[in-house]
Amino acid sequence: MDDLVNKRINEVLKGNQDAFEEIVTLFQHRLYQVCYRMLSNAQEAEDIAQEAFVRAYINIHTFDQKRKFSTWLFRIATNLCIDRIRKKKPDYYLDAEVPGTEGLNMYSQIADAGELPEEEVERMEVQERIQYEIGRLPDKYRSVIILRYIEELPLQEIGDILELPLGTVKTRVHRGREALRKQMGSL
Amino acid sequence: MNTCPEQIIHYMHAYLDGDISLEEERELKKHLDSCGQCKEIMNGLTEAITFIGSAAPVTAPPSLVEGVMARLPKEKSQAGIQRWLRRHPLLSAAAMFLILMSATFFSSYGNDQQFSVSKQPNLVVEGQTVLVPAGETVEGDIVVKNGILRIEGEVNGDVTVIHGEKYMASTAIVTGKTEEIDEVFDWIWYKMKSTAKNIFSSPKKEDE
Questions:
Q1: Which of A16, A33, A113 is nearest to B76 (CA)?
Q2: Sequence-separated (6 or more) residues with CB below 8 Å from residue A50
Q3: Which residues form the RNA polymerase sigma factor 70 region 4 type domain (chain A) (predicted)?
């Protein structure tokens, strides 16, 4: 498959835009899946996946064909996802008092945005619950857990995608597993 | 909460990552058999990753590919032309032929704006007017471009007027064909005819 991909890349480099469509078709599901798992939102996932492909197209001349194309593509997508997650995060202080209220701080305002009451979690279907648990992970651990247990990539490749040393990837996988175990309690 | 040696937790993760030595694995198993708390942690970790791993594959919406292609920067028109040429070699050759041919025709059509006349000894030229005097006989074909031809005498051949006017007196006699050319297509037709005529008549000239 790498040979075919490199062949298409060379055609794109020569200015043939149609060859890129084939590349998009080949990788669309894997790339969308990573984005969807990262963002927990179909609309945003499609937007970011498309943006990742567009950036790949624009920067295709910087891709080293001796390396794996999927690694390069996933790197672009995970970076875009992390940027998007950070932009969505509120940058106000959570323990600041909400104006016009007595003793009410931001924690009480967003309490149910990230964490749902237990009864509701228990009513979830399996697939919904999986996404809910992934979404609760801090984004540092979320990306490695998705790449490791949904994409089933080797640790070294995850390191290449996230541009992290192998040791750091291992630590994050360990902490991610630990966080999952703790947040899920007993199933 | 946990009084067990710290490396046991480390072994659990090493085991889950698949990079544990045989000896470490034995040590881990031995400990888990004897320690309910660690066994619970190990089960919790295994269950958590099994649960995440059971996620159903997600497929991209059908609009994704189309959306990407629409968002790509416009390719250089040069590339588009090149691709078209590659795909249609025969049409390309025909188109190229037509372009070059029409260029030749039109450039000669446009450039021939000045007055010219074929040379015959007894033709009288006054400004842009060419006169075949009364009582004279002009031998051979007459071609007048961008001028006026007035025939009062006799022409022993064809008469062609391109972009001009032709007046014939009652005394005029033309033994060959007379032709007036004004439009581009007439002009092209004339060019083609004369080219063909030259091709077919040239061997005759060689014979002479």
A1: A16
A2: B64, B67, B68, B71
A3: 128-180
CATH topology of domain A124-184: Arc Repressor Mutant, subunit A (1.10.10)
Please report the pLDDT score of residue B207 as a whole number: 46
Are A170 and B19 in contact, with CB atoms under 8 Å apart?
no
pTM summary value: 0.62
CA torsion, ordered B129, B135, B137, B142, to nearest 10 deg: 20
Domain topology for A2-88: Rna Polymerase Sigma Factor; Chain: A (1.10.1740)
Contact A28 B52 (CB under 8 A): no
Residues on chain B touching A128 (C-beta within 8 angstroms): none
Residue-wise pLDDT for B74-88, tens only, equals: 866 566 666 677 777
Which of A85, A150, A108 is CA-nearest to residue B52? A150
- Contacts of residue B39 in chain A, CB cutoff 8 Å? none
What DSSP state is assigned to residue B93?
Answer: H
The contact set of B with A (CB < 8 A) is 13, 16-17, 41, 44-45, 47-49, 51-61, 63-65, 67-69, 71-73, 75-76, 78-79, 82-83
**Residue B36, CA distances (Å) to A124, A138, B31, B109 in order:** 30, 29, 9, 102
